[in-house]
């Protein structure tokens, strides 16, 4: 095998590789061998749910996320409960018009820059 044969085989190898291994336009075609090529930006809820259902780590992550969100909601509700009761009491005594007048009075003081 001579020096010329080495380059000749190399050229054949590249031509075969281009023709056989890779798609002609790899950036616009979707080939399962190259999942990162192509323009596949279509995310659907069913695909995401299928991935979550098939992956145990994702199931645990979703479960912890839901528990965390529920915990935050319950804590906020407990913290804001006295404020909610005061608001309900104020509305029952003065009505919605009284609440609206109170909010507009505060907004007017803020707008004018006079505070108590």
SS strand fraction: under 5%
Q: Tally the helices.
A: 3
Query: Globular, elongated, flat, extended or rod-shaped: what is the shape?
Result: elongated
Task: Flag low-confidence runs.
Answer: none
Distance between the termini: 98 Å
Q: What integer value in Å does the Rg equal? A: 33 Å
Q: Secondary-structure element order, as H and E?
A: HHH
What is the mean predicted local confidence, pLDDT? 76
Kindly state the percentage of residues in helix. Answer: over 70%
Secondary-structure-based class equals: mainly alpha
Summed up, the domain count is 2
Summarize the biggest pleated sheet. none
The total beta strand count reads: 0
Describe this structure in words.
This protein is an all-alpha fold and 116 residues long. It has 2 domains: 1-42, no CATH class; 56-116, no CATH class. 73% of the residues lie in helices and 0% in strands. The chain has 3 helices and no strands. It starts with a helix and ends with a helix.
């Amino acid at each position: 095998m001579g020096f010329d044969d080495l380059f000749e085989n190399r050229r054949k190898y590249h031509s075969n590789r281009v023709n056989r291994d890779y798609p002609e336009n790899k950036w616009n075609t979707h080939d399962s061998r190259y999942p990162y090529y192509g323009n596949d930006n279509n995310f659907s809820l069913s695909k995401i749910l299928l991935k979550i259902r098939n992956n145990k780590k994702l199931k645990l992550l979703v479960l912890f996320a839901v528990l965390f969100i529920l915990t935050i909601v319950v804590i906020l509700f407990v913290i804001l409960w006295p404020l909610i009761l005061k608001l309900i009491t104020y509305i029952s005594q003065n009505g919605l018009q009284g609440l609206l007048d109170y909010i507009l009075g505060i907004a007017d003081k803020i707008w004018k820059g006079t505070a108590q």
